[in-house]
Each structure stands twice: as C-alpha cells, then as structure tokens.
Design goal:
Length: 153
Amino acid sequence: MRILVFSDSHGRVGPMQELMERYVPDAVFHLGDVVRDGERLAELYPRTPFYRVAGNCDWNSGALEPENVAFLEGKTILYMHGHTQGVKTGVGLAVKAAQAVRADLLLFGHTHRKFCEDYDGLLAVNPGAAQDGCAALLTWEEGGEITCTPLSV
C-alpha cells in the first residue's frame, strides 16, 4: 500500500499534483485547510481513493467532519486536521484518541511541521504544509510495518 498524505494546502494544488505524478499512490489523505484543494485533486485523479477531513479554515466544508477513521489494507487509521485535539500544544490528546479506536496510524496536520513518531506501535504522522511543497509517503505490505517518508517538492 502506498499512501500520500497532504495537509494545509491553503490554495496550492500544484505541489500536490507534482507529488501525485511522481509517486502514483494507492490512496490519498487530505487533512484540511483548504479542503477544496483536496476535492480539486480528487477530480484530477478520479481513480485514486481520496479521504478528506475539514480543517479550522474550512468553514463551508459541508458534511465533512474534522476527524474520521479509515480501514486500509489491514490498518486502522484515525485522520484529522488536529485543531480539535489541540495538536499545536502537543500530540497527547490526538494519540489518546487514536489509541481509543485502536488505530495503527494517526494522521494530523494543523501545525505545518513535519512529524513522524512511534507511540508504542501507533505511528503518528504530520506531513507538514502542502502549501510549502511538503507531504508524507506511507507504505506497507498487508499486515506489515508502516514506513513513513517525509517528502518535499
């Protein structure tokens, strides 16, 4: 499984599109701010599954929640923008939320800072700000360990 994770694109679709072409992912997560950028990217790549949540700047995001859970290739993924779990002051609340749903992977944005840390088997990842050309590439084989690679355009 090969997943691209984006957050905080703030109107800049170009860097995300460049990384989509370079890595050809099996799925994409856009973690909000600005969710319409993720929608535009999904329109450009209709065969790629996209998972999206609303960020603190996504006031008119419709039915999108700020947090959600996905199940992919044997992994449980809690994905969020992060503002609802106070990630700017630390990841503790977000890690607890992920552990509560027995997630293997926690994806969050909001801080605009790249982050990839293991918490007793829970991999917590912030791809950095897509507006600055940052993303994260996550890979694993069915039932295997997740590898996190920070990316930049």
